[in-house]
Amino acid sequence: MRWVLLSALAWLGAATLFVVAMQGSARTPRVSSHAIGISPLAQSLSQLEHQGRWTRGSPEWVVTKAVAALHLMVADVEANRPEQALAIAGAIIEGASSRYDEVLIYVRGVRGSGAVHRVQWTARNGFREWVYPGR
């Protein structure tokens, strides 16, 4: 009799988790500005767009990851409108171009949706954009 009660409670818990997950996925996607877990470099690059302060809520784009070595920087960006990748890259590179010879920026839609836009900037050739189809 005890195992029947435990089984019923387990099924009830699983059904509750399923309903909660479905409600969360039905919301309008937004760029997450989760400051926890974002590197200081990524956070500082996002601040360029937001007048030097970290924005909570839903900015148009946010740098989720950035790494730099020697004279190269690579950044991942999550954006509400990834088709504006060149403008986003311009805002990021404006403050960083004096420190790097090459910058690669990957702009993805919210939650990784749609095509990936890759923008390469070099001091010699300027901006170049590639678009990779989504999955």
Q: What class would the helix/strand composition place it in?
A: alpha+beta
Second rung of CATH, namely the architecture of the domain at 40-132:
2-Layer Sandwich
Strand numbers in spatial order across the main sheet = 1-2-3-4-5
Largest sheet: 5 strands, mixed
Helix content: 25-40%
- N-to-C CA distance: 48 Å
Order of helices and strands: HHEEHEEE
At the first level of CATH, the class of the domain at 40-132 is Alpha Beta
The radius of gyration is: 20 Å
Nearest-integer average pLDDT? 75
At CATH level 3, the topology of the domain at 40-132 is GMP Synthetase, Chain A, domain 3
Helical stretch tally: 3
How many strands in all? 5
**What fraction of residues sit in β-strands?**
25-35%
* Regions with little confidence, pLDDT below 50 for 5+ residues: 26-36, 52-58
Shape call: elongated
What does this structure look like?
The protein has 135 residues and is of the alpha+beta class. It has a domain at 40-132: GMP Synthetase, Chain A, domain 3. It has 3 helices and 5 strands, in the order H-H-E-E-H-E-E-E. It has a 5-stranded mixed β-sheet with strand order 1-2-3-4-5. Helix 3 links the parallel strand 2 and strand 3. Helix 2 crosses helix 3. The longest helix has 24 residues, at 2-25. It is elongated and about 75 Å long. The protein starts with a helix and ends with a strand. Residues 26-36 and 52-58 have low confidence and may be disordered.
